[in-house]
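# nightly structure sweep
# worker-07 picked up a monomer target from the shared queue
# config: single-sequence mode, recycle default, output format = structure tokens
# input follows
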Amino acid sequence: MKTLLKIVGVIFVLLIALVVAAPFLIPTDAIFNKVSEQVEQTTGRSLTINGDKKLSVFPSLKLELNDVHFANMQTGSQKDMASMQQLAIRIPWMSLFGGEFKLDKFVINEPTILLETDKNGKANWQLFDAVAEQPKTEQQKSSGAVNLPDNFDIELGEVAIYGGTFTYLDGKTGAKQQISDLELAILLPSLRKTLELKGGITYMGERFDLDVTLDTPVKAIEGETFNVSAEVDSRLVDLNFKGAIAEMGNDVQGLLSVSGDSVKNIASWQGVELNAKENAFNAFNIKGSMHLKGQQFKLTELLATLDELQIKGKSDIKLGDRLAVNADIDLGMLDLNPYLPEGVAKEEQAEPAADAPVQPIVWDDTAIDMSGLNALDANVVVRSSGLKANDITLGENQLTVNLKNAVAKISLDKFVAYEGNGKGVITVNAKQTPYKISTNFSLDTIDAQPLLTDAAGFDKLMGKGSLNWDLTTTGQSQKSFINALNGKLGFEFADGAVKGANIAEMVRKAKELIKGNLSAVSEGLDTGFDNSQQTDFSALQGSFVFTNGVGENKDLSLLSPLIRITGSGKVDLPMTNVDYRLVTGVVDSIEGQGTTDDSTGFKIPLRIKGPFHDVGYSLDVSDAAKEEVKEKAKDKIKDKLKGLFGN
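# output follows
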């Protein structure tokens, strides 16, 4: 018995001596050289360890490598795909023989990792081309889930990355993304307990703190549904997600929220200066329930706020080679004025001096890029209880945007504004240049003056009525669209006035002709625009036919108690010029619109002519014809004056 104990004791001493001497007996360099050789044979890349190499087996298996380099592909932008100052691993021996795998330490210090594609699109992470080309077995085609033994577990001690950079470089486009100053730690007491990832990264100069938890990682490994929460905090934006992941990451759903104090700061961080107003693009918050399964992303119960705006809705997005978006959005009361650029939004300016010349209209010839319409397909319904843009104020409205293969169709399904309503369609074809645009609108019982004043700064027409148009154009700039405008526009208004000239008063000036005062013609008719004057009407209607930006009218009709006006002429939009002839006839009664007396024996022609910014009005008769006008006027004016003022 004593002999047996001595033998066991000797063996035990020898084992201890072997463990102690192992680091000195094992040819460390030979081992790592063999590993490097095997790595190069498998991947075609070299693994080089330029620093110290330490391997010990007592009291635990310990490996420490310094100045490690893994080569990049030959067409890469730099020599190494990955390098690190130090890699340290420590594994307790007992965990290798028991049912629990315990990792005391796995620390990477100052790694520099580059993922890139070359100019041909080849990725440097494609290390096993020969293996990748082999057909997959049925087992490999499965979900990838693994069934772990019940008694198997993993306990992680210090698992971390300290410092270093992680870079992605697109060799085709030159796009580069990089995170740096990595400080990440993984905490896992057991595969059947919560896993935590904590730490931070720096991206484009901004620090982002991360806090991710995953319950029972064994579920993720075995392909079961598991819960996850993630928080990202930074100076610019905070992100929070709580949900569940199933089907090995192919099915993700949960609650997502993103918030921040300033959209302007985020834009500036990305190199975009919004130059926004003080009350625009500040605090924002987006909340919603999301579900990502395969190539389908659904967002429901969406609630987004930006400054004073509040948006509700839902969307269904199909990812893949071509993005497709279906959405239903309620914008509430949408005030766009804070978000319009200073050059577009109407600014408060001092009134120009009375003698300051009016500036002519110049159409912008800057090319407009609509290629973005080919980036996705979409069907979006947008509604709002009201809208403000510049001086335009709309009531409840709804529009549908349908975008397919660079052709956008915008349908105005509901339009309530300016005491009227309407419907219409705009189609924009951006498949190729020049772009093609068509519009078809019908507006009824519209109050003309506020609509035209807000939309175009034109306040010369007052009254209620209908406005409809069917117009098409092609081009790539405001100027080219104006030059190619074709189609028809019609209008019909009642009980209103045209500001700028009192044609009825001009007719009354004809009274002076009876006395032989020809200067009255000039005083009453041959005058310029006067904003304080207006011509009242009980009915006004007409239409324009546009050809290459020039609108021609042949059927203008204005009915007033004293006069009847007909007109024809052209409005040249490309040249910003008008040439129009009005014929004013004095009726034989003053019964107004309802009269059956259409006689207009005494007629006065009026010419409206000039550039838009300086339109002039003048009597359209020659000097020789003025005597004839005088004689024809005498009896007609006498009769009118009797009717108006008595005998």
